[in-house]
Amino acid sequence: MKKIIFFLIAILIIASLYFVGKKYIEIQIFKPYGIKGESVLVEIKPGMKVRDLASFLQKKKIVRGRILFLLGYNMFFKGKTIKAGEYKFELPISLFDVLKKITKGEIYLHEITIPEGSTIDDIGKILEREGILKADDFVRASKNVELVSHFTDKANDLEGFLFPDTYFVPKGIPPEKILKIMVSRFKEKVGGYLDKVKEGFDFYSVLILASLIEKETGVDSEKPLVSSVFYNRLKRGMPLQCDPTVIYALKKEGKYQNILRKEDLSFPSPYNTYLHKGLPPGPICNPGIASIESAINPARTDYLYFVSNGDGTHTFSSDLNSHNRAVRNYIRKIRESKKENSIFYR
Question: Which of 45, 96, 114, 343 has the lowest CB atom count within 10 Å?
Fold first, then answer.
């Protein structure tokens, strides 16, 4: 009888220790850990084993200990796959929430802002600088014009169709996927303008014109005026003489030296609107909505010329004499500010 009582007591003690231990472990699993206010960004590599990940997260001071991590995984998430990718942990955080995050694949999304007027090359460099992908891979993938076949069959790449906006993307996203996202945003924001294109102009021509407007001025109130100058020149058969088209042509060949020189205006390229009348063969950047609206609805003016005032604004003229006076004023301002020859004017 004594042996039976002793055996029962032993079982009771063991059971009590098990449940107390289990409860203690659960408390530790659900208890927040880490220095308050700190955030830690880590990358879980594809194929990383659970044991190796436990040690890795312990070293990063995201979890209390390797053994506790393994216990937590086996108690609550056993059989679930840990997703590779970047994760950002806001401390303090419980082990349970860490495991929940990495098994759900709640990877960190980088906030990437693409400014209006960015080119494909510019966007690639931004994405590479942020560690998202390689710029060269992005540029190569941008040749897939099937993504914009709904808009035109004239495009050689996606220049003009990558809507300038803020995007949230994970590190390592394939370039094809982010291009689809950006073109989808373009369709969402710009698609409604298809029916507003004036007779005699197709949408791709409007987009090309919008890209010229975008590069010529960052002042929204001036964009309809710049648009009117281009429309008036096109009607008269005058070359557009748009400096940014020459810069774009030079950059495509890796020959731009951060200053537009007089001899550059003779650079042989179909994009050079000093040498070729009409619009260039494609957009020279990715314009914003204001430029697209201005390309569709230019101001009604008789302006044929404009020149920079040196402060982001421009002086518009209807005749060459007035334009030349504005040019002389601009040159005088440059000389006074000791910036002579820093910019070549139209």
Answer: 45
Query: Which residues touch 120 (CB under 8 Å, ≥6 apart)?
Result: 138, 139, 142, 157, 158, 159, 162, 286
198-206 LR contacts (CB < 8 Å, sep 24+): 198/296, 202/152, 203/151, 203/152, 204/151, 204/152, 204/154, 204/155, 205/279, 206/292, 206/295, 206/296
pLDDT at 54: 96
Place of tokens 């494609």: 282
| Predicted local distance difference test score (pLDDT) of residue 13 | 53
112 strand-pairing partners: 167
Cis previous bond, 239, omega within 30: no
Q: How confident is the model at residue 9 (pLDDT cuts 50, 70, 90)?
A: low
CA dist., res. 248 & res. 30, Å (int):
57
| Sign of the Cα pseudo-torsion (147, 153, 159, 160, in order) | negative
User: Residue 40 — φ and ψ, nearest 5°?
Assistant: -125, 125
Q: What is the pTM of this model?
A: 0.86
pLDDT tens string 71-122: 999 999 998 999 999 999 999 999 999 999 999 999 999 999 999 999 999 9
pLDDT band at 192 (very low <50, low <70, confident <90, very high): confident
